[in-house]
Design goal:
The protein is mainly alpha-helical. Among the domains are: about 55 residues; about 90 residues, no CATH class; about 70 residues, no CATH class.
Length: about 300
């Protein structure tokens, strides 16, 4: 097959020469594919499924692009709803608050948590979450309290989030179909478990003077979702530091991805299925041992001759 006679069927997608050289030198096919995906204006969220990559592999690809200076981190936008949020009038919201005790309770709880009277814009957002996204009142109670507690952990006591933060989290819950109290409780338990594990791992990694970055948390969450426990992740950390001298998140991620591919998740499975090879005996030591053996044999022969 003569490959020289082939060329790309279209050439409308332009890549800066500097970027192309960086991608070629890196020789990372997943990172190059992600670059083309984003350059074409496609949504980041759809890349993993389209490329057949796990969440951890997508994160590793994004990290490689960041390392090459081809991807800048930005604030995560609100998840897009299936359709535009309707424009609710003040009369609609006031009437619903008067006739629907559950929605009225949502407004009262929001004011209690935030410590101020809700504005018209705030009430429109909450009504949209309740009416348009379909989150029941008891689920909304859980969501708002969760957002307030997370905000306090991040920014300290006395600080409260905006209603826009409730909206962002509500879109996330709606996309995951967390629409009952039991599902909300299960989700919050998993979030707490992941958060607690992440904090313990932060200590194990020697990170003391700062919080984990968003990217670092995504790495840990992806490892936990793959089925690794804290002890298994600590083994990967130990091997990373042993081999490189310091913590390198992409390298550690590759170790855990390789274990996941082999079906090794518990410390026992890892130690039995992917044990560290023993250091090879140095050639110089072998030569030294051979010389010693030769001298002993020579002495023995001399005794026999005498």
């Amino acid at each position: 097959m003569d490959l020289n006679k082939y060329s790309l069927s279209h050439s409308s997608l332009s890549i800066p020469t500097q970027d192309a050289n960086k991608l070629l030198d890196a020789a990372d096919s997943n990172a190059a594919l992600l670059y083309l995906w984003l350059l074409d204006g496609r949504a980041f969220d759809g890349f993993g499924k389209a490329a057949g990559l796990s969440k951890a592999q997508v994160i590793a690809s994004a990290e490689k692009l960041k390392e090459l200076g081809l991807l800048a981190e930005k604030e995560t936008p609100l998840p897009a709803p299936d359709n535009e949020m309707p424009e609710f009038t003040a009369e609609e919201i006031s009437e619903r608050a008067s006739s629907d005790l559950k929605f009225s309770a949502v407004l009262a709880e929001a004011e209690r948590l935030l410590g101020h009277v809700l504005s018209g814009a705030d009430m429109r957002i909450l009504f949209g979450i309740y009416s348009h996204l379909g989150l029941p009142a008891d689920v909304l109670f859980e969501l708002m309290n969760y957002c307030v507690e997370e905000h306090k952990k991040k920014f300290g006591p006395g600080r409260t989030p905006s209603v826009k933060r409730f909206e962002k989290e509500a879109y996330h819950w709606a996309s995951r179909e967390i629409l009952t109290l039991s599902l909300a409780d299960e989700y919050l338990r998993m979030q707490k478990k992941m958060s607690d594990t992440a904090e313990k791992l932060k200590i194990s990694f020697g990170i003391k003077s700062r919080d984990l970055t968003a990217t670092e948390r995504k790495y840990i969450e992806s490892w936990l979702q793959m089925g690794f426990g804290r002890e298994a992740i600590e083994i990967a950390y130990d091997r990373t530091v042993t081999n490189l001298g310091s913590l390198k998140w992409p390298y550690m991620n590759k170790i855990l991805l390789s274990w996941d591919k082999k079906g090794l998740h518990s410390p026992k499975e890892i130690n039995e299925g992917d044990s560290v090879s023993k250091p090879a005996v140095k050639t110089q030591d072998k030569k030294s041992s051979s010389r010693d053996d030769y001298e002993q044999i020579k002495k023995a022969l001399n005794k026999v001759k005498k």
